[in-house]
Amino acid sequence: VHPNVSQGCQGGCATCSDYNGCLSCKPRLFFVLERIGMKQIGVCLSSCPSGYYGTRYPDINKCAKCKADCDTCFTRNFCTKCKSGFYLYSGKCLEKCPDGLEANNHTMECTSIVHCETSEWSPWSPCMKKGKTCGFKRGNEVRVREIIQHPSARGNPCPATTESRKCIVQRKRCQKEGKGKKNREEKRKKSNKDESKETRQESKGRAARRQNREQRENNNKTQPKKRKAPNKEQDLAPTDTAH
């Protein structure tokens, strides 16, 4: 064993040096060199730090550095996140997105351009003026539509979602609110009155029928029962005579 190699290593090191840190790592850990000033120190990590990607070999697992414009990468030629000022597209970091794509400053990626989409127009509303549908000859009617898909930064903007046009209606007077309310009240009172009258008539009819029934029962009690008339045919039948 080299005199500079220590066997009592810590921090995941299999072998280490007092001057250079870890020289090899325990199984499944990644070996990476960290620069401190002019000096490089070997360390063993469970995953590679930002700007590095991991490679596994039979004898050692290493962390290799990503390309200069990559913040994180899967391999050296496939970035998963770009550094500031670059946009990610198909694993590469670009200063400008290709034609047909736009730069998303939130995700720092090149994404497809999205245009605005709207629904179909609704039917025209009734002809109105100042919120009323009566008391005028010329008014306006309105139709609306909804936004289904909002556009991206470079997408086509949304058109107007409301349209209005002039309309003509046959002039008619507005019914006064007080008069309408009075008519409704009178109709309600008349309906209640008719219902009360019908109820009283039904009550009188039931009382009369009950009185007639009681009277018939009393008459049946006071009159004597009629005797059953003799059978004339029996009275006139011949009797047997001894000869």
Automatic annotation (TrEMBL):
According to UniProt, the name of this protein is: R-spondin-3
Which domain of life does the UniProt lineage start with? Eukaryota
Role of this protein: Activator of the canonical Wnt signaling pathway by acting as a ligand for LGR4-6 receptors, which acts as a key regulator of angiogenesis. Upon binding to LGR4-6 (LGR4, LGR5 or LGR6), LGR4-6 associate with phosphorylated LRP6 and frizzled receptors that are activated by extracellular Wnt receptors, triggering the canonical Wnt signaling pathway to increase expression of target genes. Also regulates the canonical Wnt/beta-catenin-dependent pathway and non-canonical Wnt signaling by acting as an inhibitor of ZNRF3, an important regulator of the Wnt signaling pathway.
Regions of biased composition (Basic and acidic residues) lie at 175-219
Q: Where is the Spondin-like TSP1 domain?
A: 116-170
What subunit structure does UniProt give? Answer: Interacts with the extracellular domain of FZD8 and LRP6. It however does not form a ternary complex with FZD8 and LRP6. Interacts with WNT1. Binds heparin. Interacts with LGR4, LGR5 and LGR6.
Which residues does the annotated region (Disordered) include? 174-243
An example GO CC term for this entry is: extracellular region
A GO BP entry: Wnt signaling pathway
InterPro entries of this UniProt entry? Furin_repeat, Growth_fac_rcpt_cys_sf, R-spondin, Rspo_Fu-CRD_dom, TSP1_rpt, TSP1_rpt_sf, TSP1_spondin_dom
SUPFAM superfamilies, per database record = Growth factor receptor domain (SSF57184), TSP-1 type 1 repeat (SSF82895)
Q: Which Pfam families match?
A: Furin-like_2, TSP1_spondin
**Keywords recorded for this protein, A-Z:** Disulfide bond, Glycoprotein, Heparin-binding, Repeat, Secreted, Sensory transduction, Signal, Wnt signaling pathway
Residue ranges spanning the membrane: these are none
Residue intervals of the R-spondin Fu-CRD domain: 11-110
Q: Where in the cell is it found?
A: Secreted
Single GO MF descriptor: heparin binding
Family membership: Belongs to the R-spondin family.
